[in-house]
Each structure stands twice: as C-alpha cells, then as structure tokens.
Amino acid sequence: KALGDSGDLAAEWRSIPIIEQGLWVCMSGFPKTQAVFRSLRSVRPFEVFLSCMPPHSKIQPHSDETNFLLNAHLALELEEGLSVLTVGDCRRTWRAGETLVFDHSYVHSATND
Known about the structure:
single chain; 113 residues; mainly beta; four-stranded antiparallel β-sheet; three-stranded antiparallel β-sheet; 40% strand; globular; disordered N terminus
C-alpha cells in the first residue's frame, strides 16, 4: 500500500502525491507548490500531497504507526465550521488558510460535514 493511499480509511478521499519518502514524484504541475517546498532549506519533507475530502465524508480513526514525523494540514478551501480534525482527545475545527500540525502516531480522524 502506497503512502497517501487512504482507500481503506475513506473511500471518497482522493490525493495527488507530490513527494513520497522524500523523493519528488510529481515533476510536472503545481509549480508554486513545488517552489514553496524547494525553498525550505532546513526542512526535508518526507511526504507531501494535495487531497480532496468531499462534503459529508469521514476519514476513520487510525494511527500511521510512526513516531518520527509531524503532519501539517493546510486547509485551502472549505465550509467554515464543518471540517474537524481529531487527534487523540483533541478536536480542532479547520479554517481556510490555517495549518494544523500534529504527531500522526496518535490515533486521528477527520470529518467534513
């Protein structure tokens, strides 16, 4: 199963991989996104992908079973107040233009009502 493959967790969730296991896999397309990540001199992203979680969908609770990575989620487009990320016992509402960062070794889930 490839990284970013979420079929078992949320059949509706789709993603486009940009970086997988530290390697660029999307060489054409998304030039501004690539420029941002290439400009981060002191950061080496392990995985970067763009994803779409349609309305009325859910990503089931899961752990990615690693404790050496942090996950950063930037909401680009959403209906305010309807998208929630839960990590462990913490529940946060996503807001467009804001980033949520968490340790994905904790059980986490997401809903988009």
